[in-house]
Amino acid sequence: MFLSLKPLLEGPPFYVLSALFGLIVGSFANVCIYRLPKRESVVTPASHCPSCGTPIRFVDNVPVISYLILRGRCRACGMSISPRYPAVEGLNALLYLAAALRFGGTPATLFYFIFITAMVVITFIDYDHQIIPDEITLPGIPIGLLAAWLILPDPFYRVAGMGLSASLIGAATGFFLYYSIAFLSRGGMGGGDVKMMAMVGAVLGWKGVVLTTFLASCAGSIVGLYLMVFKGRGRKTKVPFGPFLAAGALLSLFVGQEIVYWYIRHGQR
Ligand SMILES: [Zn+2]
């Protein structure tokens, strides 16, 4: 006899569980953001203070809450801890809540949780180090293809499943579009972006790649102009594009359908 999980997979209980799960995975995302670029294991050792090296006790490692209780300081040495740690946890939780509200208690939602955290981790690693780690994007491509084949809906036409061929076409679109951009821009865009967009294409399809590109370019231009006008940065300032792609991909996932329908309605005057 099985205990029915159904009450936990719908309505407010599911939304609360999703947000809590987002906090916990967000805490793991912090570990990935900190350790992946250093090629350290994300499993061992347990979290420790980056300043004094003291292992963080279990009760001091509760997402967001511990940060508030300890008022952003290490219990052992008193060094202040970056507010980015709770911010990443909170952001991840909010995005999980949004996915739960948008897609409900389905296997696709569980997969989107993974996709969301991948985008969050990529955003911060690319911002810090101007790299997009292969550890995320390379497994992400086959996992995305498999998920699209088995459980994902078409993000732009949700009544239908995505299917393997649409996913393959999406991955190929992402790969070749960004391979061309990387080739033409001669280093302005790197191999990390190419692999990332192959993964995004596998999950969101070719329309997702196009919309992500459009949204990321708009946001990138606005931020680039802002940096030039208000911060006096030159035209050659390197701004990592991964965070814009990640934001564009998540916007495409959540509201891509609405954006496309809006465009069709208003574009045919
Ligand atoms: Zn410390």
Summarize this, please?
Helix content is 66%, strand content 3%. The protein has 269 residues and is mainly alpha-helical. The chain folds into two domains: 1-105, no CATH class; 106-269, no CATH class.
Q: Topology as H/E string?
A: HHHHHEEHHH
Shape assignment: globular
How many strand segments?
2
- The overall pLDDT, averaged over residues, is 92
The largest sheet is: 2 strands, antiparallel
Question: What structural category do the secondary elements indicate?
Answer: mainly alpha
Secondary structure tally, helices: 8
What percentage of residues falls in helices of 4 or more residues? 55-70%
Which key features would you list for this structure?
269 residues, mainly alpha, 8 helices, 66% helix, 3% strand, binds zinc ion
Plain-language structure description:
- The protein is mainly alpha-helical.
- It folds into 2 domains: 1-105, no CATH class; 106-269, no CATH class.
- The protein is 66% helix and 3% strand.
- Strands 1-2 form a two-stranded antiparallel sheet.
- Strand 1 and strand 2 form a beta hairpin.
- The chain is globular.
- The chain starts with 10 loop residues before the first helix and ends with a helix.
- The model has no long low-confidence stretch (mean pLDDT 92).
- Zinc ion (ZN) is lined by residues 49, 51-52, 54, 74, 76-77, 79.
Record the SSE blueprint:
Elements: H1 11-35, H2 65-69, H3 84-103, H4 107-129, H5 134-150, E1 153-154, E2 157-161, H6 164-185, H7 191-230, H8 242-267
Antiparallel strand pairs: 1-2
Helix pairs in contact: 1-3, 1-4, 3-4, 4-5, 4-8, 5-6, 5-7, 6-7, 7-8
